[in-house]
Amino acid sequence: MSKNPQTSPKTARKAAATERMREQRERAERAARIRRRTVVGAASAVVLALAAGVAFAVGGSGGSGDGQAVGGPLVVPANASGPDGTVITYGKADAAHTLEVYEDFRCPYCEQLETTTGPTIQQLADAGTYKIEYHLATFLDQGLGGKGSRTALAAAGAALNEGVDKFKQFHDVLYANQPDERNDGFADVNRLLDLAGQVPGLKTDGFVKAVQDGTYLPWANQVNKAFDKSGVTGTPTVRLNGQKLDVFAGGAPVSPERFTTMVKQVTG
């Protein structure tokens, strides 16, 4: 009987490093595909509009995402903050510093940041280093087609109505379960409700009804319009006290240690 040779620790470390590099390369290629598809989609829209003799300005998302108007009254979730209730603030209200985070729930770069450095970003907020202001967008619905960004944002609004902590937990669950960009998985409210089950106490009758009825879809559009006016052109964008932090290096999110160092450099 022959024996399988044992793998040396050095060989195992090398294999693990190779696997990490492969995963980083795949993430970078995936993000590049999204950028190409977004640019192509926007360019196609320009050509079609010019052919029709339409004058317009190309901006962020260009509206509701799937081109259809969202009916119903504007309902702002409880616990929303900022102008017209378009900002979600997490952390201690009297924190001396403010971290602004600009994201889209379908953005793969946002998923990479949130699933690697995200816990450290939250820990610093919980410690009172800063408060987090989330500015959310739905522009990838136009770039990729579909309505998952907007539907996920509306569901996040229903979570916010239950509490800021519920929003934050649901926000993290969405990124941990983000579908491939070719799959508009977040457009399915049943999928969103299934994911909400991972947040203890979130699936109240009110939350479920709001998600199923699209109660916060008009609010999601309002939030996206505020994003468009912010001047931010890509996600994720992270700013501390107005100063942009370079949260990506070499196509990958900075480490939690590097992020903490950057925060200390700004806050002193």
Could you describe the 3D structure shown?
The radius of gyration is 20 Å and the shape is globular. Helix content is 51%, strand content 10%. The protein has helices spanning 9-51, 108-116, 118-126, 139-144, 148-162, 164-176, 189-196, 205-213, 217-229, 256-267; strands at 88-90, 98-104, 131-137, 237-240, 243-245, 248-249, 252-253. Helix 5 packs antiparallel against helix 8. The protein contains ten helices and seven strands. It has a domain at 83-267: Glutaredoxin (3-Layer(aba) Sandwich). By secondary structure, it is α+β, with helices and mostly antiparallel strands. The strands form two sheets. The protein has a five-stranded mixed sheet, sandwiched between helices. It has a two-stranded antiparallel sheet with strand order 6-7.
Topology:
Layout: H1 9-51, E1 88-90, E2 98-104, H2 108-116, H3 118-126, E3 131-137, H4 139-144, H5 148-162, H6 164-176, H7 189-196, H8 205-213, H9 217-229, E4 237-240, E5 243-245, E6 248-249, E7 252-253, H10 256-267
Parallel strand pairs: 2-3
Antiparallel strand pairs: 1-3, 2-4, 4-5, 6-7
Helix pairs in contact: 2-3, 5-6, 5-8, 5-9
